[in-house]
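Here is one chain, start to finish.
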Amino acid sequence: MNTRDLYEKPRNIILESLDRGVAPWRQPWGKNGLSLAQRNAFTNRPYRGINVFTLMLAGRGDNRWATYKQIKARGGRVVAGSKSQFVIFWKFVPVRKSDDLDEDQRETYPILKYFRVFNVEDTTGLDLPVDPTSAPAEIPSNEIAEKITNRYAKSIGLVNRATGTGPVVRFGGGRAYYSPAMDNIQMPPVAAFSGTGEFYSTLFHEFGHSTGHHSRLNRFEKNAPGDKFGSHGYGLEELVAEFTSAFLCSEATVDPGVIENQSSYIHGWKRAIKADHKLVVMAAARAQKAADMILGQQWDKS
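Its structure:
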């Protein structure tokens, strides 16, 4: 599979979902307070970037996946006729400038690679616990979201002074937006939102934008919320924010709710994604970095 195909395949999966009137990054992300994150069956490591959406759209009841080699090594087998799903990842290859340099001193460049995984529903002979998402739990759906917010934001409203490195969050008016110049987020009053999911998915969207600030991921040199509406930079940055919100909603098991004017929203994203075959992969990669920063997580590059 060539590099263009690795961009095209996830793009086409997303477009097929949009054709059905479903924006995959706006789906419910939790069940009974448990995360529905797609993850490896044996390491429990969550899949990341665009893989979050492509695996979810496979429509399987279990959220655990593994490679054929992993399944075989643990005494299982893949049921004949089962269909695998591909997972893409960035492999960082060192630039060999001099043999005198240590490995950690060499510059690296990313190469897009892939491997295939099978859902555990398509296997036999594996000794795996029951999928925990099928069991009830009594965890408030907004408790984790509150912790994420308090951890990242510098302050929330006029009373709650958080200790995070993120922007100040202010409330009032009828718009939600992030101001790079002021490094603050403006949100409508909490009462203006119809539910917890709508509130946090909106706030997390603006959190996503805020990570582009020069003091954080410095993403606004190439694209920014201030780019002209309809431009490539605008579309990419908006998708980064949408994906960041989805990743954070997944972490917090928050249902993002249904957006207004869904058909117009879907049409706009279909047009943008069709115009650039790399858009969803690049946006998901940037959004994953944004979510990691907000959550304070670090992952190795292997």
